[in-house]
Design a protein that fits this description.
Belongs to the bacterial solute-binding protein 2 family. 43% of the residues lie in helices and 22% in strands. By secondary structure, it is an alpha/beta fold. The protein folds into 2 domains: 152 residues, 3-Layer(aba) Sandwich (Rossmann fold); 149 residues, Response regulator (Rossmann fold, 3-Layer(aba) Sandwich), CATH 3.40.50.2300. The protein has an 8-stranded mixed β-sheet with strand order 1-2-4-3-5-6-7-13, with helices on both faces. Strand 8, helix 6 and strand 9 form a beta-alpha-beta unit. Helix 1 packs across helix 10, helix 2 packs parallel to helix 3 and helix 5 packs parallel to helix 6. The longest helix has 19 residues. The two termini are 27 Å apart.
């Protein structure tokens, strides 16, 4: 018996959103709740978050009307959609803000309208977060980078490489990625003090990451490794290494697991370790915190931690693929 009901709606005037009526299992409380969900872009991680929000509704005890959009990394689109959610009577907003500084005005408007805002993955700067955000579901970005830095250090130590040259493909338009890099560098240099970051360029989206990484390889022919701070950067660096004939010479350590990245890890010729925060798990946590906030039970400590996983072998990649047959992280 199908326990789900899904109805596609259009958010009047928004031009961006779709709404889903998600009913919990038979016997769940017949309370209705309208929630807005905003995904920063269309990369695999956010598809996982979307599924987590959807499936989390089954256990929520509410009939959830989830109105959602993809901000496409655009602060103005994010702001416009938040205004539409305010007008439509949303009771909570789940969002991964595009910019720690640029997103705060729209989030402040939602807060001032009495709507709890729940961040996930990214958020505002500390002072604005304390003023305008009810909860922040997040895997610690420093730990994220630190785990990957430890893995890189173990690899270089095993290879007998004491002075590796590393290039960073970054997503540092959001603060969490800056913190990821700090964690990575601290862990790596604690164990391989001769390691050197020789380049740090933005390439969060796959096509740009391939281009940037290819250029770096051309200018630094003795590069030992890339650190991809997010999924697009990780996969883009791996593809650049292969297309430039650098397999066996330059390796990749990266963040955010997807089917393509898991396949690269399973191959294990270029990608050597991946750190990941489950998109589905984080989506479920963000939804749970949204419901608690609507019920007046926002956490005392705004940050609500979520686990960070390290995958550092071909077998890890194969196991991830088996566990995620639908391709969603």
């Amino acid at each position: 018996m199908d326990l789900w009901k899904t109805t596609v709606l259009t958010l009047a005037g928004a031009g961006l959103g779709i709404g889903m009526m998600l009913a919990g299992p038979a016997g769940a409380a017949d309370k209705e709740l309208k929630i807005g969900a905003i995904y920063m872009d269309a990369q695999g991680f956010y598809a996982g978050v979307r599924k987590g929000i959807q499936t989390g509704a089954a256990d929520a005890g509410y009939k959830l009307d989830v109105i959602e959009t993809n901000a496409q990394g655009d602060v103005s689109k994010e702001s416009s959609f938040i205004d539409s959610l305010i007008s439509s009577g949303a009771k909570a907003i789940i969002v991964s803000p595009v910019s720690a500084d640029g997103s705060y005005r729209a989030i402040r408007r939602a807060h001032d309208a009495g709507i709890p805002v729940i961040c996930y993955n990214t958020c505002l700067n500390e002072s604005d977060m304390k003023d305008y955000v009810s909860a922040y579901a997040v895997g610690d970005p420093y730990e994220f980078g630190h785990k990957l830095g430890d893995a890189a250090a173990a690899y270089f130590t095993a290879e007998g490489k004491t002075d590796p040259k590393i290039a960073v493909i970054n997503c540092e338009f959001v603060e969490v990625c800056v913190t990821r890099r700090k964690g990575f560098e601290d862990a790596l240099k604690a164990k391989v003090p001769g390691a050197k970051i020789v380049a740090n360029q933005e390439g969060a989206i796959l096509d740009k990451a391939v281009s940037v990484a290819s250029t770096v390889l051309g200018s630094t022919p003795d590069l030992d490794a890339f650190f991809g701070e997010a999924g697009g950067a990780t996969l883009g660096a791996a593809r650049a290494v292969k297309s430039q004939g650098r397999t066996g010479k330059t390796v990749v350590f990266g963040g955010d697991m997807t089917t393509e990245i898991a396949q690269e890890l399973a191959d294990f010729t270029v990608v050597k370790a991946v750190v990941d925060i489950s998109g589905q798990g984080l989506g479920k946590l963000a939804l749970a915190e949204a419901i608690k906030s609507v019920d007046g039970q926002a956490p005392k400590d705004i940050k609500v931690p979520y686990d960070i996983d390290l995958y550092a072998s071909a077998e890890d990649g194969k196991n991830w693929l088996k566990a995620h047959a639908d391709g969603l992280p």
